[in-house]
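Re: beginner question about structure tokens

> Can someone show what the tokenized structure looks like for a real chain? I only ever see the sequence side.

Sure, here's an example I had lying around. Input first:
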Amino acid sequence: MDFQNTGRTALFIDGSNLYAAAKALNFDIDYKQLLKMFSGDGQLLRAYYYTALIEDQEFSSIRPLVDWLDYNGYTLVTKPAKEFKDDQGRKKIKGNMDIELAVDVMDLAEHMDHAVIFSGDGDFRSLVEAVQRRGVRVTVVSTLKSQPPMVADELRRQADTFVDLDDLRKQMARNND
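And the corresponding structure tokens:
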């Protein structure tokens, strides 16, 4: 897959969204390979990874990944997840990182030629449009091949390029040997 990686590129990974898309496609992401894909001809400015963390748990299943990413070339953006009870009294966890991702994209817009957003969240459509007006080319990576599709139609249409995560499986799937 060619990402026209000739300019200054930044990656913006909505951790929970990418995880859900990969899980729906039945594979695990190899984050070392993902970084390698974008470290080629162009200049990779940053690779941001956004996730909410449950602070009071003795063990969090995402903690080893977050620690590995932090030491291996990713810029981690985290915040504490919030626990609450829904109308039926069920415990829910909320940890939306959309604002943090949007602020970072806007802050970096004047320094990059290409933004790659790993998310299918339709809330990012106006963000994509705003950075495009500043001359930034935007690629959205998510999937249409899951049931239901994980990318909002309005986001896919706004992006300069849409890449289906399933088409990247060979380059970035973790070998579970």
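Each token stands for a local structural state, so reading them left to right follows the chain. The longest strand covers residues 43-53.
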